[in-house]
Design brief:
Elements lengths: L2 H49 L8 H80 L4 H32 L8 E4 H15 L5 E5 L4 E4 L1 H17 L7 E8 L2 E7 L34 H11 L3 E6 L5 E8 L1
Parallel strand pairs: 2-4
Antiparallel strand pairs: 1-3, 4-5, 5-7, 6-7
Helix pairs in contact: 1-2, 2-3, 3-6, 4-5, 5-6
């Protein structure tokens, strides 16, 4: 969380707790005042009873009147305790709900700011690289091999730009229920092989292993499932060393098709495993994080899995790394 956001959150927290303490203190003072007034009324009634010539101390009539005064005193005290306790409970429940809501809003606002900064950087980098490559080709008489290399690099950057913009657009459409997915029979084995080949072409210095059973038929949206696979492969390539392979497996079980994307990176702490699928969520501190990203990839994977009635989870990969598993019911 940025310094400005931390200061704003601290200031809001101080104001919140000050108001809460004031309200609770006022409630306690209200109870003390009413109870003191109740005690005074009891003492006054007893004094009137004792001074009334119609009553003689320790007679049956006197004892009955005295019991009525004491019972009324206890009844009022119980009423004040009950009302005060109920008000206190409602105040604490409301305070907890408000505090949680405000805290979530501040965290979401900070995540949105981080997302905008990340998206700006992610968009600017491929545009700048593509522009520089094209200007180099235009200004200088390069040999064919050099031109071919620059054109390949430009195509890779435009593919990266297309990948990012598709993530943003589809995530927005799916969240707003504007994306109309079309479920059709498709061969997930061939789709996974095509995605892996594309990543091998883009990342020529990386190793992508595969263990794919043929003819894994599922019913789904080809574009969405391709985006799911690409995001998982992109995530694995991004968070694991270049020398370590990324492994994709696909196999059929009874009634389901299981897709797994495994890397040999640092892995994900257990307390972070459920959070990684949240919108804008990224592991680590925003000020010290070095890996690029927008926090939309895994969120989009979860949305696509939900759209296909599939389950997605992450576990530890042995001996190290992460294992993302998508279970699609056929």
């Amino acid at each position: 969380m940025a310094d400005s956001s931390r200061k704003r959150f601290r200031r809001t927290t101080i104001i919140y707790w000050t108001l809460l303490v004031y309200i609770v203190a006022a409630l306690v003072w209200w109870f003390i005042s009413l109870n003191a007034q109740n005690n005074k009324m009891r003492d006054l009634e007893i004094s009137k009873l004792q001074s009334d010539p119609a009553f003689t101390a320790h007679t049956v009539k006197y004892e009955q009147a005295y019991d009525i005064i004491i019972k009324e005193h206890h009844r009022n005290k119980a009423k004040y305790l009950g009302e005060g306790g109920l008000f206190f409970l409602l105040i604490m429940i409301g305070a907890a709900v408000v505090f949680r809501y405000v805290r979530q809003q501040l965290i979401m606002q900070q995540q949105q700011q981080n997302f905008m900064m990340a998206v700006t950087h992610e968009l600017k980098t491929p545009i700048s690289v593509a522009k520089l490559n094209l200007e180099t080709i235009q200004k200088y008489a390069l040999d064919a091999a050099r031109q071919k290399k620059l054109i390949r690099m430009t195509l890779q950057e435009t593919s990266r730009l297309d990948f990012l913009t598709n993530n943003i657009l589809v995530a927005s459409e799916m969240e707003g229920r504007g994306y109309k997915s079309s479920k059709e029979d498709l061969n997930l084995s061939d789709l996974l092989k095509d995605c892996l080949q594309e990543f091998r072409n883009r990342h020529t210095d990386r190793v992508f292993n595969e263990k794919i059973e043929p003819d894994a038929e599922v019913k789904g949206d080809a574009l969405l499932l391709q985006m799911l696979i690409n995001n998982l492969l992109e995530n694995a390539a991004k968070y694991s060393p270049r020398d370590n392979p990324v492994t994709a497996t696909l196999h059929k079980e009874k009634g389901v098709v299981v897709l797994q994307i495994m890397d040999e990176g640092p892995g994900i702490p257990d307390e972070e495993k459920k959070k990684v699928f949240d919108k804008f969520y990224r592991i680590g501190n925003e000020n010290t994080r070095k890996t690029q990203g927008t926090g939309l990839g895994l969120y989009l994977c979860r949305k696509i899995a939900q759209d296909h009635k599939a389950d997605i989870s992450v576990t530890n990969n042995n001996p190290r790394g992460s294992n993302f598993t998508v279970t699609i019911h056929t």
